[in-house]
């Protein structure tokens, strides 16, 4: 479908107050640039019971909250091929919004309290966050989405809307889980520094340790979910760029080994166990998970809602390129039911409300964290989104 028609349909859906999501997966080696939209045909709020359904899921951080679903069978799907400029545009210079001194001191107090608890051995790591409001010049979320698409080719970029919930936008670097057939992929992402023209950088002990916690805990979680460690492979940690930031990343992938967790095409729901083993990862919550979650819920002083939750395709019918060769015709029955789950952690995101963007930004705290540095890290992360909002 032509790009103009795609966005006309989305504008129409938004103007009619009907739910939709538009998204593009990270572009790898300049290859895949499909932008997809899922347009729900009614304004009902559907929920996923156990991730056995098919559709697009939008889940909150707090697992006691319900995950919202745009069911595949109640939605229309649109696709256009994004033409990506050869050169990614240089980061836009933008006016820095004033951040109040009060915001800074509140965050520093929160981090200081956490460092004390970490030093006392109550937890090993906790991820703490804050919100920041930015007055929007461009108030149309779909225009902001178009800017995000161009600015962040290697992120999962989305714009999600439901009249009963609100509008969220983001460009996240973190995969929660990808399942195709009986293979899965996930990643351990943590540690942050500013990108200054090269990915060839040194990492401090604090960041290395913080990221190792995430890798270890994901592997343990997978094992608890029944995925034996012998079926899991991890890369060495490496530096990955996300906009104006760098993170330490380990890719983890493997085979879902026993028949109980096989994900054959007629049993699309078996991703559930792995989802609950992974979410919320120590990249967004902490370790031990329950202690860190308790600390976050009692000390952060606001509701994260969908920030650090997850979103993406759930058991969604995979797009198949159908050529007319005989072999493909014969394979069609099998191919047409091929399902894919592709979920991302909702980071570098914002909520659009009454002409204002509410940005959500956080960072991992360990006993060695320096509160002033942690504050600066949230300022750097906020820039990722402000680049598009304040240009
Ligand atoms: C919680 C966030 O980032 C996580 C992901 C990558 C690196 C992180 C860090 O260095 O602290 C965080 O764990 C956020 O961006 O709001």
Automatic annotation (TrEMBL):
Pfam families reported for this sequence: Chorismate_bind
UniProt-listed InterPro entries: ADC_synthase, Chorismate_C
Domain Chorismate-utilising enzyme C-terminal, first and last residues per copy: 104-321, 336-381
Gene3D superfamilies linked to this entry: Anthranilate synthase
Domain of life of the source: Bacteria
TM helices/strands, residue ranges: none
Name used for this protein in its record: Isochorismate synthase
Species whose genome carries this gene: Salinimicrobium sediminis
Taxonomic placement: Bacteria, Pseudomonadati, Bacteroidota, Flavobacteriia, Flavobacteriales
């Amino acid at each position: 479908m032509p790009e103009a028609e795609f966005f006309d349909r989305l504008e129409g859906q938004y103007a009619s107050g009907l739910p939709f999501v538009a998204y593009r997966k990270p572009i790898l080696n300049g290859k895949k640039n499909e932008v997809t939209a899922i347009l729900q045909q009614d304004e009902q709020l559907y929920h996923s019971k156990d991730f056995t359904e098919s559709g697009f899921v939008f889940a909150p951080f707090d697992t006691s909250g319900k995950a919202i679903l745009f069911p595949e069978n109640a939605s229309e799907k649109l696709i256009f091929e994004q033409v990506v400029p050869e050169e990614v545009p240089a980061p836009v210079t933008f006016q820095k919004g004033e951040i109040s001194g009060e915001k800074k001191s509140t965050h520093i107090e929160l981090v200081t309290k956490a460092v004390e608890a970490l030093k006392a051995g109550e937890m090993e790591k906790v991820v703490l966050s804050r919100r920041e409001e930015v007055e929007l010049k461009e108030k149309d979320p779909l225009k902001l989405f178009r800017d995000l698409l161009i600015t962040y080719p290697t992120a999962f970029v989305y714009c999600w809307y439901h009249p009963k919930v609100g509008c969220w936008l983001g460009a996240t670097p973190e995969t929660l889980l990808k399942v195709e057939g009986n293979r899965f992929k996930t990643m351990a992402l943590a540690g942050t520094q500013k990108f200054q023209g090269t990915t060839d950088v040194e990492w401090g002990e604090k960041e290395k340790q913080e990221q190792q916690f995430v890798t270890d805990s994901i592997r343990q979680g997978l094992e608890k979910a029944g995925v034996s460690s012998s079926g899991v492979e991890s890369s060495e940690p490496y530096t990955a760029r996300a906009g104006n930031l760098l993170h330490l990343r380990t890719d983890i992938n493997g085979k879902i080994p026993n028949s109980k967790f096989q994900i054959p095409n007629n049993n699309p729901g078996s991703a559930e166990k792995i989802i609950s083993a992974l979410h919320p990862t120590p990249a967004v919550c902490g370790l031990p998970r329950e202690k860190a979650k308790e600390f976050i819920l009692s000390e952060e002083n606001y509701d994260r809602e969908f920030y650090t939750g997850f979103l993406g395709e759930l058991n969604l019918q995979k797009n198949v390129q159908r050529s007319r060769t005989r072999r493909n015709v014969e394979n069609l029955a099998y191919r047409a039911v091929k399902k894919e789950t592709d979920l991302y952690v909702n980071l570098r995101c914002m909520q659009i409300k009454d002409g204002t963007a509410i940005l959500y930004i956080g960072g991992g705290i360990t006993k060695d964290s320096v509160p002033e540095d942690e504050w600066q890290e949230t300022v750097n992360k906020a820039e990722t989104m402000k680049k598009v909002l304040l240009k």
